[in-house]
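Q: what sequence does this backbone want?
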């Protein structure tokens, strides 16, 4: 590990140096060397950010050209690499070297000669030092920033990925240096510096707190309090929040002249910057044998070379103990991975459920790594890039259980060689061997001696020794499969007085089971072993367990099981507790239950074998539970915009949902189950329920915008609506798909679905449905800049809704018509229609749409030159968006507030507000990011011209 030196490598030093903390530069003996055009510079920056590590060609292409690379992209990169190699050879013969190493390139370089890595090393080293030396080292690190990072490639994707984190690093280092200076009693010198910093970063609470403390110690008590009130007002006005608890506590200390403020306090322990995941499942009890395989994994860890891939695949048949081996070894070596352990069950060979997609796994892992749900990128490539960025330079163990194929695993591989990935699969995954250098470890069944040891450890200690012959026979009947052995051992442990030979006789009496426990058919072996436990359940519990095989999702609550079993929730809760005691269900969190995947498969096989009509009735009851609860919950999010009403399902006992927060909490928790429920309703031919259940998710979808699931369930819903020839279903499903595609920027797809919705509505002759489709068509035609067609559609819809007296949909038509009028320059007419729509949405208490209309009012007002009115409308929109939780509406409000600030000439405020809007749009995957970036670029150019 590098120890930071006392002085930075600068122009006076001989040799070479790379600089990214400013315009990208390569200095040789203090003199810059030409680096070529922007693409070559971006390529070099990619390699410099990950020195001595392989950067894949695919990532280089994606970084340089995003989603539209030229056909010759690989050839062009090879050309850039050749020119950089010549530059290095001519400028610094003993310096950096670009090495071709599959699947890309590796820059072999002394990382201490790269300012980014030198700065990080200095900042990390400073935490261990006393205040005076800490201040000096942090000042040295801060001196490495020469302006905006990578300023000469500011329009590249690389800049957008890297610049925010490096700016945050600089600010953190700055705050730490100020903290050290405060400990040293340098408050008089800090007041002026901090005043400038707070003006530049007005929402950064720690800087404000440091200025308050410095001012107080310097005798400026009134100034210290004024700074607090200024920040509180700004936070309330712009974000609708109050200062954090630390700043509030500091303010209270100021008010009471707390003596503790007068002298520097002992330095607190630094808080962890990032969460350290510890997701490994518990170590399997009674793990035995596998000495050869454990030793092979140990050798792989010990023999790793710098820059080589640390990837192993444990393969073998189902039930052979792949997961047990992987989890056991992972726990044994977890001390080698101080930055944490990530775990995911990929469900690659679940016969009933689809494998997890890489996108779903990445979403879960990013949340574990501290990324907020609304900040997770939409595109898979962006999620992968963020995941790899978070794991860069971190030593993490990633355990991926039950993978289906190489394609499922490859996006989940960290880019850093510091981490290790352990995969289990029934397949060899040769693609990972060829492309990623994986090492394959085949796993066989346990030999008899180890199998008997497992029976003894997992069952009653000493029982096998008392009946060695019977124990050997039982091990053979279980086929050496650890899962079957563990189940047999649990049977013995449940009744310690029972003889091993009794269990052998039970298995032997079942003629089918002799074949079922053969290792040639591992799935059947496990199923028959489960059958022993199932038949010993109380009849009520056995019936409940079998019906759990009907649950489409992965988890279930007592309310859901009550519907499934036609009972009340307390009774369902008692049944689930009994099954949990028998280890047939688990309770991963209070009140929410699940099942091991193999047990789920077994339960579903029982359902298939029964062939009873009551199972169909049970599934329908469960779907009714989801329908009634979703219908109830959605009405807290926004008004229902259809005729669906399931409040009459009095047999359903819904969980308590009394407000918007509880409704969102229920949808969030049940969302995977709701998606699965729509899909199974479609697959099981319950088409009348499938499309209606999909529709009931619309209000939640509008708030959370999970694009992939939205399109998935509405596609199934549309298939069901077509199958039962439901015009209402077809109109609503195609309209919902249109909204999903429109909001994600796929306008042609949106228009196609809206057009189908319109054509079906025409056939129904229902004027309300037809008008709704007209509004939808108008909105997408407007975005496609087909303004006259859009205006005609909106006017037609408005006439129909006025004639029907439907105030809510009149508001929607007025809003869309106003947008067209705005583009046509009819601003007064547009504002009048928007104000009418605003009043109607206030009456309907639809906060999400009200926020949209208020933002539109603000935009038109600013165009009319009424800046104060525009700013007021946008502030009202922000308040409404914060109350309803709509990130997209919040972003629109910040965008409009920035426009108002620009119109007043307050360019720094405009920049702050636009940057906030941009961050939200980027997190939501919105196509509106382009317009915000254009504003920011124009602002930068305008400020630059002023400077000149």
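A:
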């Amino acid at each position: 590990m590098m120890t930071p030196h006392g002085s930075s490598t600068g122009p006076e030093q001989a040799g070479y140096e790379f600089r990214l903390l400013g315009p990208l530069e390569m200095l040789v003996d203090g003199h810059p060397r030409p680096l070529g055009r922007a693409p070559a510079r971006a390529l070099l920056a990619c390699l410099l950010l990950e020195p001595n590590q392989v950067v894949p060609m695919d990532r280089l292409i994606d970084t340089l050209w995003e989603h539209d690379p030229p056909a010759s992209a690989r050839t062009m990169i090879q050309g850039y690499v050749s020119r950089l190699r010549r530059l290095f050879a001519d400028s610094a013969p003993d310096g950096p070297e670009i090495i071709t190493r599959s699947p890309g390139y590796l820059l072999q370089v002394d990382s201490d000669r790269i300012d980014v890595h030198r700065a990080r090393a200095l900042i990390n080293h400073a935490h261990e030092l006393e205040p005076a030396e800490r201040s000096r080292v942090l000042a040295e690190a801060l001196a490495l920033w020469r302006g905006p990072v990578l300023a000469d490639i500011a329009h590249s994707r690389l800049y957008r990925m890297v610049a925010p984190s490096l700016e945050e690093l600089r600010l953190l280092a700055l705050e730490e240096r100020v903290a050290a200076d405060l400990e040293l009693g340098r408050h008089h010198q800090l007041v002026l510096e901090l005043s400038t910093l707070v003006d530049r970063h007005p929402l950064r609470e720690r800087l404000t707190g440091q200025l308050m403390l410095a001012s107080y110690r310097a005798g400026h008590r009134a100034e210290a309090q004024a700074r607090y009130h200024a920040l509180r007002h700004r936070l309330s006005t712009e974000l609708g929040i109050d200062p954090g608890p630390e700043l509030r506590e500091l303010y209270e200390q100021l008010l009471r002249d707390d003596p503790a403020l007068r002298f520097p306090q002992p330095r607190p322990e630094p808080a962890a910057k990032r969460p350290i995941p510890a997701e490994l499942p518990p170590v399997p009890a009674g793990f035995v044998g596998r000495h050869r395989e454990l030793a092979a994994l140990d050798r792989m860890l010990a023999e790793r070379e710098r820059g080589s891939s640390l990837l192993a695949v444990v393969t073998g048949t189902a039930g052979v103990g792949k997961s047990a081996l992987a989890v056991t070894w992972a726990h044994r070596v977890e001390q080698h991975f101080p930055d944490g352990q990530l775990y995911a069950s990929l469900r690659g060979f679940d016969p009933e459920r689809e494998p997890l997609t890489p996108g779903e796994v990445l979403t879960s892992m990013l949340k574990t790594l501290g990324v907020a749900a609304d900040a997770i990128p939409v595109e898979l490539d962006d999620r992968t890039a963020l995941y790899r960025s978070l794991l860069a330079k971190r030593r993490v163990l990633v355990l991926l259980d039950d993978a289906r194929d190489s394609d499922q695993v490859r996006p989940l591989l960290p880019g850093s060689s510091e981490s290790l990935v352990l995969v289990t699969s029934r397949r060899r995954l040769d693609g990972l061997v060829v492309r990623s250098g994986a090492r394959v470890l085949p796993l066989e069944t346990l030999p008899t001696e180890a199998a008997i040891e497992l029976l003894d450890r997992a069952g009653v200690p000493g029982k096998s020794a008392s009946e060695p012959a019977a124990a050997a026979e039982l091990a053979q009947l279980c086929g050496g499969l650890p899962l079957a052995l563990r189940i047999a051992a649990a049977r013995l442990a449940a009744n310690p007085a029972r003889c091993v030979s009794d269990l052998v006789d039970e298995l032997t009496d079942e003629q089918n089971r002799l074949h079922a426990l053969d290792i040639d058919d591992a799935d059947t072996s496990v199923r028959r072993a489960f059958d022993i436990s199932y038949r010993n359940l109380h009849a009520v519990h056995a019936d409940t367990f079998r019906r759990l095989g009907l649950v489409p999702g992965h988890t279930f609550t007592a309310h859901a099981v009550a519907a499934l079993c036609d009972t009340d929730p307390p009774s369902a809760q008692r049944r689930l507790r009994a099954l949990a005691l028998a280890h047939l269900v688990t309770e991963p969190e209070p009140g929410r239950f699940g099942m091991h995947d193999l047990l789920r498969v077994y339960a579903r096989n029982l359902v298939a074998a029964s062939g009873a009509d009551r199972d169909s009735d049970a599934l329908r009851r469960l779907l009714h539970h989801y329908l009634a609860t979703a219908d109830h919950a959605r009405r807290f999010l926004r008004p229902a915009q259809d005729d669906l009403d399931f409040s009459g399902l009095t047999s359903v006992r819904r969980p308590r949902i009394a407000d918007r927060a509880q409704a969102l909490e229920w949808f969030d928790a049940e969302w995977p189950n709701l998606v699965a429920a729509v899909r199974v309703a479609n697959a099981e031919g319950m088409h009348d329920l499938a499309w209606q259940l999909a529709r009931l998710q619309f209000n939640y979808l509008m708030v959370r915008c999970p694009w992939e699931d939205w399109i998935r369930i509405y596609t199934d819903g549309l298939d069901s609506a077509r199958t039962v020839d439901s015009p209402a279903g077809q109109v609503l499903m195609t309209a919902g798909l249109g909204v999903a595609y429109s909001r994600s920027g796929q306008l042609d797809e949106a228009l196609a679905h809206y057009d189908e919705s319109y054509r079906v509505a025409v056939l129904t002759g229902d004027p309300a449905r037809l008008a709704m489709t007209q509004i939808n068509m108008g909105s997408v035609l407007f975005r496609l800049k087909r303004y006259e067609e859009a205006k005609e559609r909106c006017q037609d819809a408005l006439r129909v809704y006025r004639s029907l007296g439907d105030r809510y949909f009149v508001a929607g038509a007025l809003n869309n018509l106003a947008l067209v009028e705005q583009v046509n320059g009819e601003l007064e007419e547009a504002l009048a229609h928007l104000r009418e729509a605003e009043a109607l949405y206030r009456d309907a208490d639809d906060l999400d749409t009200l926020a949209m209309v208020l933002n539109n009012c603000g935009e038109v007002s600013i165009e009319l030159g009424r800046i104060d009115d525009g700013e007021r409308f946008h502030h009202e929109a922000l308040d409404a968006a914060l109350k309803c939780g709509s990130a997209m509406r919040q972003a629109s409000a910040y965008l409009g507030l920035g426009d108002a600030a620009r119109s007043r000439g307050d360019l720094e405020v405009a920049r702050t507000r636009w940057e906030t809007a941009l961050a939200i749009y980027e997190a939501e995957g919105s196509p509106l990011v382009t317009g915000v970036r254009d504003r920011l670029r124009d602002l930068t150019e305008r400020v630059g011209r002023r400077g000149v």
